[in-house]
Amino acid sequence: MSKVYLMQGNQAVAEGAIAAGVKFFGGYPITPSTEVAESLAKMLPTVGGKFIQMEDEIAGIGVIIGASLTGMKVMTATSGPGFSLKQELIGYACIAEIPMVIVNVQRVGPSTGQPTAPAQGDVMQARWGTHGDHPIIALTPGSVPECFDLTIKAYEFSEKYRTPVILLLDEIIGHMREKIELPDNYDEIAKPQRKLPQVPPEEYKAYQADADLVPAMAPFGSGYRWHVTGLVHDEYGFPNGSPAATQKCLDRLHEKINNNLDDIVLYENYCMDDAETVVIAYGGTARSAYAAVDAARAKGIKAGLFRPITMWPFPAKQIAEIAGKAKHIIVAEMNYGQYVIEVERAVAGKAPVTLHAKYNSEAITPDELLARIESLK
Amino acid sequence: MEQIIDKYFRPGRLPHIWCPGCGNGIITGAIVKAVDKLALEKNDVAVVSGIGCSSRASGYLDFNTVHSAHGRALPVATGVKLGQPRLKVIVVTGDGDATAIGGNHFIHAARRNIDLTVVLFNNNIYGMTGGQYSPLTPANSKATTAPYGTVDRPFDVTELAKGAGATFVARSTTFHTQLLVDVIAQGIQHEGFSLIEAITACPISFGRQNKMGGAPDMMKWQKDRGVMLAAYEKMTDEQKEGKFPIGVLYKTEAPEYSAEYDKVIARVQKGAK
Ligand code: SF4
């Protein structure tokens, strides 16, 4: 049985978290992400989970690192400035391989910018906000129902690859109310599971990877004692800064993601079969892009939309294929031009790439996009 | 001691990285002696540290251990405690770690009265980065970033903890080792936020700049200045000059955070308001 609701994207994220089996949320209030925290403050105790409002953004991610080590599925939610404050510990969670989902509902920046207006300004921060070299998975929902589904997906990736996953929303998706159908009972939804050690405690090495390059993770308190550090470490988790150990540690972090791009890279093709003018848009901007493509088609223009759902790792293969067929590629985004840089790199001159950027705190409209499509035909 | 080393230190992780004469080993030893005294299961203890000389202790100890980020031991420890309330969570931190970059977390963890035992290694300086001043560096001390003496007034971290809501506050030194073991054990047993300030000698980064002599001289400094609370309270202001009280300085009972949250869960799940 399922029921239909009218719900915000932020609330749907919270519902998705509960459905995925999340038992812990720690965070700090920041617009436009607060509804994620507020919803979970209400829901978590009902499922035996815990919510804690911490003293600052850094504590908000620190506390979920600790809870994740005890085996819980955990979440924090923030927006651009808070996301920056969390970056050191996001990097920590990457190198220490601690599963978690970090929701970033983007706002206009830099700094406080326009806290209640839509933007897609943290696309590059999601990829490169931390220090040093590590891969990241970042997913971007384009509707309220997708907020629910992608949150569950985020935990699937996070637990499977033992890594933080960023759920990158924009204010349009976070605050938009939309119809969503939710099961009455989340028991029927499969809960992503963390790989547990199969060896006795004496033989356990917390960072010894299996063939899939992902090490099993024993919850604190389960009888397996191990060491967690943000330093480059050996298979036991003890610091080892030798050049060989450093390279091995970082290689595996990258390869466990890069070897699985077919699993991780999610996208949607809309009217793409014969598309000559391809719009690449994501999140809230994609909503206008569907309408613009439909309007262009009505005028006889062969337009299509490629919507990356996995922002990072970058869908380079898919975009290279598009570039081989399209006459024009338009990247539409609510920033001064971020994702377009990666698109241009993947297109590698095989098709002209046009940026349709908007960063005045207003959404990109279907009419504007249609006009852009028409201007290129 | 050797038996204790075999029992609680990870095989193959010694020798430690601390300088000769450093007091950090004494405090780390006191922590395991306290655990031993309480006969706690190793699996039931978690040690979370920040970054700095002191915080390297977590790597040597055979518990569930985390060497977290600079200043962030307390939020991480809070998560461990809430995630697995059965664990005795000990936080190993330094003066800079806990009261400068981590100062906000420190006061708020105390305010919540969450059941953590914080052993603050106070060496009065940033040791690992080579001798810069911290919020616990005594006024007018030399530091590499205060070549003419510090102007900053230091915290009394025990008063800070008490003011913020900690329910168990104690102080000892690496000279008063029996007392140190004892107050750490009491802190672990206490249900609530416990702070144990462990005054330690850093002959390399602090002692040298301040002409305090070698490690034995610095131990003597601790011996001469640390006075048991009961005796300290009887001293005149003049006699108190240059001295500090040691022992359990403050103890009270208050609701403990993780237990209180469990009550919320129970209430909500029963459907009561
Ligand atoms: S610098 Fe000071 S605190 Fe650090 S290990 Fe050396 S003596 Fe100990």
UniProtKB/TrEMBL annotation, chain A:
User: What residue stretch is flagged as signal peptide?
Assistant: none
Q: Which SUPFAM superfamilies match?
A: Thiamin diphosphate-binding fold (THDP-binding), TK C-terminal domain-like
Q: Which GO MF terms are attached to this record?
A: oxidoreductase activity
Q: Which domain of life is it from?
A: Bacteria
InterPro entries tied to this protein: 2-oxoacid_oxidoreductase, PFOR_II, Pyrv_Fd/Flavodoxin_OxRdtase_N, THDP-binding, Transketo_C/PFOR_II
Keywords per UniProt: Oxidoreductase
Task: Identify the residues that the record assigns to the Pyruvate flavodoxin/ferredoxin oxidoreductase pyrimidine binding domain, covering every copy.
Answer: 15-240
Q: Which PANTHER family match?
A: SUBUNIT OF PYRUVATE:FLAVODOXIN OXIDOREDUCTASE, SUBUNIT OF PYRUVATE:FLAVODOXIN OXIDOREDUCTASE-RELATED
Query: By what name is this protein known?
Result: 2-oxoglutarate ferredoxin oxidoreductase subunit alpha
From TrEMBL, chain B:
In terms of Gene3D superfamilies, this protein maps to: 3.40.50.970
Q: Which UniProt keywords apply?
A: Oxidoreductase
The UniProt entry, under Pfam families, shows: TPP_enzyme_C
The answer to whether the entry has keyword Oxidoreductase is: yes
What are the GO BP annotations of this UniProt entry?
A: cellular respiration
Domain named Thiamine pyrophosphate enzyme TPP-binding is located at 51-197
One GO molecular function term of this record is: thiamine pyrophosphate binding
Q: What is this protein called?
A: 2-oxoglutarate ferredoxin oxidoreductase subunit beta
UniProt source species = Anaerosporomusa subterranea
* Source organism phylogeny: Bacteria, Bacillati, Bacillota, Negativicutes, Acetonemataceae
